[in-house]
Write a structure and sequence with these properties.
The complex is a heterotrimer of chains A (about 200), B (about 140) and C (about 110). Chain A has about 200 residues and is mainly alpha-helical. Chain A has 7 helices and 3 strands. Chain A is elongated. Chain C has about 110 residues and is mainly α. Classes of the chains: A mainly alpha (about 200), B mainly alpha (about 140), C mainly alpha (about 110). Strand 1 of chain A pairs parallel with strand 1 of chain B.
Chain lengths: ~200, ~140, ~110
């Protein structure tokens, strides 16, 4: 009898630990995707049910496949996000033209693998920078060194030392925009300290 | 909605889709023309992200104003764009990483390679450590 | 306007042919995976163009499925190659000796 009780307690504790794995912001994001899938934004009575069901499904998913929490979290700044969006979109269009020119230019194509050390130590910022840099044509992330926060970027058509420095600057600008849009206060402070140090050296 | 408005939207839509098709075409040409895997990857990522976004915009502009069946859902378009923007760079990165590590990179075409330098340095360090450990 | 639709179709057709050529030429399995990705992108664009041309929204869920399928496909091919790098190289392709050693190791 006692044994059964102990086992029940153990099960409850395990369940509670699993429940602790549910991260509300991520679950809300998954609910949003669920609602987009099932037309949950139309004004009709089912929409509420879709939202609740979506939240339950996301919670169950996060309990069955637990993910490490996002440390140190993020802050959403709408205006800066809009600026980031425009910046990335503009960069994409310009870079598309550059790559197209590269494709139709005769002669061999040379490129470089550039190491870009990040100025902030946040996994989320690292991932976001890597994804946006890859989405922009002309740069592909070859390797991410997570403990040191260094991105290794393959840049198409970069041949000279000046070009290497320039492409590093492009990635760093991207990082700055992302940190300003999504980073916590500490991230922004890190970034500003790092750029101040660079300016002093120059 | 007025006739003129719909026709203007139609023209914008067809231009967007044409641009998307052009990006696909350029990517295919680059696929044939570029000599190694990593440079091919640059052109391949283009229609998948920017081209797809343009096509989705075109679909939205063309179907939205005349839609009356209720089948059309703007959410689907947003989802396709979202998935494409998030998944394509991830897949590209994994393929590039595997390609680099299994030696499918033409070193004569890479001018500066800072990753190679670092991997070399680390290998050197590992070798000296192993030698030091095995020595009596 | 009809000319533009035709041009779109022709561009996509040529793109698919070129992609198929790279798919046949290889040389490594990763190149083939990449060309499949480009073919898939052309197919997505083509389906999208079809939907827009006919003003037919019923195809759109297909786009959703295809885009996720492409992701899963290329990831699994890459993982497969990472597991055993030597087998998928032809003899004339020299494996960079040291890079394969730690093919799977996590940086």
């Amino acid at each position: 009898m006692n044994d059964l009780k102990a086992r029940k307690n153990q099960g409850l504790r395990a369940l509670r630990r699993r429940l602790g794995k549910v991260q509300i912001p991520v679950a809300l994001g998954m609910t949003l995707v669920w609602m987009l899938l099932f037309k949950g934004f139309e004004p009709r009575p089912e929409s509420l049910g879709i939202a609740v069901l979506g939240f339950l499904v996301s919670a169950v998913i996060m309990m069955v496949f637990p993910m490490p929490p996002i440390v140190p979290g993020f802050r959403f700044r709408p205006v800066q996000c809009l600026r980031l969006f425009c910046h990335v979109l503009g960069k994409m269009v310009v870079a598309s033209f550059q790559v197209t020119a590269q494709v139709f230019r005769p002669g061999p194509v040379r490129s470089s693998v550039v190491a870009v050390p990040m100025r902030t130590d946040s996994d989320l910022m690292l991932v976001c920078t890597a994804i946006t840099a890859s989405a922009i044509p002309g740069s592909v992330i070859v390797e991410v060194s997570q403990p040191e926060y260094v991105l290794y970027v393959h840049m198409l058509g970069v041949e000279s030392e000046a070009g290497v420095q320039e492409s590093k600057q492009v990635i760093l600008t991207l990082e700055e925009r992302i940190v300003r849009a999504l980073g916590t206060r500490e991230n922004v402070a890190d970034l500003e300290a790092a750029s101040a140090a660079v300016e002093e050296n120059a | 909605m007025s006739e003129l408005f719909v026709s203007v939207l139609d023209w914008i839509a067809i231009l967007c889709i044409l641009a998307g098709a052009m990006l696909s075409f350029v990517a295919a040409v680059g696929l044939i023309r570029f000599p190694d895997l990593l440079s091919r990857m640059h052109t391949a990522a283009k229609p998948q992200v920017l081209g797809m976004l343009l096509v989705l915009l075109g679909i939205g502009l063309r179907i939205m104003p005349v839609e009356e069946t209720g089948v059309f859902d703007f959410g689907t378009l947003i989802l396709v764009g979202l998935f494409q923007v998030i998944t394509v760079p991830v897949a590209g990165h994994i393929a590039a990483r595997v390609g680099y590590r299994t030696g499918r990179i033409r070193h004569d075409l890479v001018v500066t390679d800072e990753l190679e330098d670092r991997l070399d340095a680390r290998r050197q360090a590992e070798r000296t450590r192993q030698n030091g450990g095995s020595a009596p | 306007m009809n000319t533009l639709w035709t041009v779109t179709a022709v561009l996509l057709g040529v793109a698919s042919l070129l992609g198929t050529a790279r798919l046949l030429m290889g040389p490594s399995i990763l190149d083939r995976a990449l060309s499949v990705d480009v073919l898939l992108a052309s197919a997505l664009t083509g389906l999208g163009a079809y939907a827009a041309f006919n003003r037919d929204p019923t195809i759109l869920p297909t786009l959703l499925v295809l885009s996720l399928l492409g992701f899963v496909g290329s990831i699994s091919i890459s993982k497969f190659v990472a597991r055993r790098p030597e087998e998928h190289l032809r003899p004339e392709e020299t494996v960079h000796p040291a890079t394969t050693e730690q093919g799977e190791s996590r940086e």
